Amino acid sequence: MNKTPFELYNAIRGLNDPGARIIHVIRGDHAGELALISGGRIVLCSKAGREEAQCGFIESRLSEVCEMENNRIVDIGGELVYSEMTGGDNKLVICGAGYVSLAMLSTGKLLGFHVTVIDDRLEFVNRAIERGADRVLFNNFEDALQEISGDSDTYFVIATRGHRFDKVCLRSVLDKPNAYIGLMGSKRRVLMLRQELEEEGIDGEMLDPVHMPIGLSIGAETPDEIAISVMAEIIQIKNNIKSGGFDREVLGAIVEEGRERAVLATIVARQGSAPRGIGTKMLICRERIIGTIGGGCLEGSVIAKARRLLMTGGAGPVILDVDISTETAEDEAMVCGGRIKVLLEAV
Questions:
Q1: Domains (range + CATH), the chain
Q2: Against a cut of 0.70, is the pTM above it?
Q3: For residue 31, what are the CA distances in angstroms to 58, 73, 202, 311, 314?
Q4: Element (H or E) spanning 321, and its range?
Q5: At 40, is the pLDDT very low, low, confident or very high (cuts 50, 70, 90)?
Q6: 20 to 30 Å CA-CA from 139: which of 29, 38, 96, 191?
Q7: Averaged over 295-309, what is the pLDDT?
């Protein structure tokens, strides 16, 4: 169970639990303790700056820690503790590979989603491959969807070529864990589909969360405009239910073999209209920066502090308060101000 911080972060990549969380003791006698928690138990623990990993405080307060809200700093027994979701890759599953679906595929990739496209027509499947889909399932919809388990980071979009295929897909995904289900079609078409499913015994309450018709109402007409309206709705849902977590680039850089010593910066508190949310991360190495916590003067001051930590050999944790005044924001051509607290930890 006791590991180095490097091993702890590396374990996140292989942990198949979107609900897993990392607990940081950021201030107090036990500052530097880290624990990876899954299923209410400690999977791995570590302590920054120590050769022998320890998480005695977290272990002794495990029940309290597990009750913490994520992306919050809480005082537990005189220690400041921060809890965050490890998160998983955002996954977009598109049923159907028509022109709108291909536009959503491109937009989803641009936004960092892992995109899966399903279709039973070879010509359309090949188009999805050419567009750069991460995964393409060439099969009938019912069998293909059996290969997708779903989770709290999975966004299902149903955009098939016909009513009967829509029904097959919707029936298949209703029972799967998901962050979002959306069905493309006219109001008349989706109303008819809902009525048919309820007549077949599907509880109306299961259908209530389904977004039908799909997308934000922006008067979209072309495939690209419709794709933007759909992805805008998905972004809205995603950012309302999820904050923080490791994006693939930052996590990959943290556990990169042979990487030089670095400092991981995480926004742990936010006031006002600061540009990035709680949980946003950036990795600062001596010669390069991976990720961003907002740019401008805000990011510059964090990078400077992190590099001083690297030069002095410090391990942290260090809490840095950054105040982006209105005047400073204007000078830096930023559209917002506010205050943030940033947690710095050597990794």
A1: 5-85 (no CATH), 91-241 (3.40.50.720), 248-346 (no CATH)
A2: no
A3: 11, 13, 51, 21, 13
A4: strand 318-324
A5: confident
A6: 191
A7: 83
